[in-house]
Amino acid sequence: MRRADRLFQIVQLLRTKRLVTAGDIARELEVSPRTIYRDVADLIGSGVPIEGEAGVGYQLARGFDLPPLMFDGDEVGALVLGARMVKAFGDAQLARRAESALAKIEQVVPAKLRREFERPGLFVWQGLRREVRANVECLRRGIEERRVIRFAYRDEKGAQTERTVRPLCLAFWGTAWTAGTWCELRGAFRDFRPDRMEAGAELGAAYEPDPARDLAAYLAARRAEHECERRRANERD
After folding, report:
1. Torsion of CA 79, 80, 86, 88, to 10 degrees
2. Where are the domains of the chain?
3. What is the dihedral of CA 60, 63, 68, 74, to 10 degrees?
4. Which residue in 58, 144, 187, 200 is deepest, having the highest Cβ count within 10 Å?
């Protein structure tokens, strides 16, 4: 990597994180921490407002910004493929946002890179059914607006129940989504698949934050479950 490129990458790393150590940057750019110390000193000397010190970490001064970034061909290709995946497997609103973002990027990249928007050989087949997209959007809105969701649910055995949940997160597993929630019926954290929710999921009332039923508590519970499963597997071995 040319030194000029390395200096640019250092500034980009400082833009994306609040506090970054020289060791973190060195591992990312595959150079020594001493090289990073020299580069940071040179950047400061050239007027880039970097705050911090060796052994503690560095960050850009609040309010500092750079001119718009320029993408290379591979980056544009990655953005296009990612947008196609969002359009195929996200909800309708996310699909529109992805398409709008690509249109804006296409307007500012050089003409020689615009062919990347039609790069052949990268396809995303199939996608979500319309009713599943609607369920994903309902869950996502529930997360953003902190509102309960009501829906009928059919499990893998075909049993149907009526659920009221606090949606906490959505996870995409390659072809299917799962929603991490606090389930009022079970009084516990439960995961639901939007493709097993009956059509017509509804947003309910807003709810107040509760540390015992929020995302952090959900993740802690899942980590504890995974640790128990790991110990059991080790005991069987």
Report:
1. -160
2. 3-60, 73-118, 131-236
3. 40
4. 58
Q: Which residue has the higher pLDDT, 110 or 119?
A: 110
Mean pLDDT for the stretch of residues 105-131: 76
The answer to whether residues 108 and 68 touch, using CB atoms and an 8 Å cutoff, is yes
CA distance 165 to 186: 10
Query: Cα dist. 163→13, 152, 208 in Å?
Result: 44, 6, 19
pLDDT category, 17, cuts 50, 70, 90? low
8 Å CB contact between 163 and 153: yes
| Contact yes or no for 149/204 (Cβ under 8 A) | yes
**What's the average model confidence in pLDDT over 190-209?**
93
User: What pLDDT score was predicted for residue 66?
Assistant: 56
> Per CATH, which fold does 3-60 belong to?
Arc Repressor Mutant, subunit A (1.10.10)
